[in-house]
UniProtKB/TrEMBL annotation:
GO terms of molecular function: ferrous iron binding; oxidoreductase activity, acting on single donors with incorporation of molecular oxygen, incorporation of two atoms of oxygen
Gene3D superfamilies to which the protein is assigned, alphabetical: Jelly Rolls
Binding locations of Fe cation: H68, H70, H120
Key words of the record: Dioxygenase, Iron, Metal-binding, Oxidoreductase
Source species taxonomy: Bacteria, Bacillati, Actinomycetota, Actinomycetes, Glycomycetales
Name of this protein: Cysteine dioxygenase family protein
Family (UniProt): Belongs to the cysteine dioxygenase family.
Protein origin, superkingdom: Bacteria
Keyword Membrane applies: no
Amino acid sequence: MPTQRSNIGQQPENLTERLVALAHSYACETKIEARFRPHSRWAAKISSAPDHEAWLLAWLPGQGTDLHDHGGTGQPSNAAVKVISGELSEYTVQAGEFPRLHRRDLQAGDVSAVSNRTIHAMRNRSSLPAVSIHVYVPKLECMRTYLVDETGLTPSQIKLAGDDWAEASPFHSVDYVCKG
């Protein structure tokens, strides 16, 4: 049975509900066929409204993102991810003396909502392709990536939304979305 999960925390409940509703709506209405690339996940912007945008992503087995946030110094974005088909694993950084990763497996129909300050990564760990819808409020401008090592979590790169979404390294770096 599909589940709804939220990492939004202190954000207004209506924002979480709105993100989830938008993700469900785009998942039902999207007529674009997902494409798969052998060396990196595929992404297409499917909607751009004044206050949000939606992306369709396609993941082959083993493909994923680096650890990243959707924040930064500009207008950070809250997000919702709905898995349309297949399975994705979401890795969220848990705060503490030494950051650790918490994994949640998302099945087709599941939705995960994250705040504009959550550091997370998505990966297709299954043996089958996966497709997902990603909704950002406000529009996603960039992602800030991170490195994790024995000293903790360190900012690594800034990637522009959609432009720099090449294949991620296997969890020794983390992607962050941000401005500046």
